[in-house]
User: What shape does this take?
Amino acid sequence: MNCTVIEYKRCKVVKVTGRVDSSTAPQVEAALNGIFETGEHHIVLDMTEVDFMSSAGWWVLIEAQKKCKHLNRGEIVLVNVQEKIRNSLNLVGMDTYFKLYDDLTKAVGSF
Amino acid sequence: MTTHTFRGRLENLPEIGAFVAQTARQAGLNDSDIYAVELAVDEACTNIVKHAYKGKGGKIVCTCEATPQSFRIVLKDSGPPFKPQGIRQPDFSVPLENLRTGGAGMYLIRKLMDEVRFEFRPNEGNVLTMVKRRSD
Assistant: This one.
């Protein structure tokens, strides 16, 4: 699994690749916390190349979303979530906590 | 029927997932069902590593068996007897700020699989049996 942070004018994009499970979710958490430390709370999580995500990954995103939305500081949005992953998100009902985009440009443009 | 024994550590989750996914693929499950069983096994093994073995390691014995109607996975661990009734079920209908972290693994397993059974056998330890009916 790999996490890359790309700076845009109005947000930061976190591109995650590979498998997000209990052993790798802390890397995503660390990348997001690093962004929060800069004061940025507008984040696009690019999941184009994420082929597996367990609940450990979703909890990291839920906690990140809480930090973003606290005091209306911002939001974390998701882009290109693969169908099988989206289905599992919908299955547990976590989908209501995130905006999903199919296009990175639109996701970045939402801020 | 295929059985493999793994060390119960979080860094072994990809290896366990790959074993289950490959066995499911060879059994002819569709992509959606393969992902469901891999995810259910990942969640179950995470619980074993974190709660049964408390991060100290131990064996996880994984057996996969395909039938014309279904795919069965049996996970065995030698941790203390597991009591599934003690697991709090998360409530995803509450506003974000009130959402309490944790408990989604068990919830997901029950949603993903058609049968889920927990047993404690004195000679074998915890035995978790999960069955996915073929959706084709």
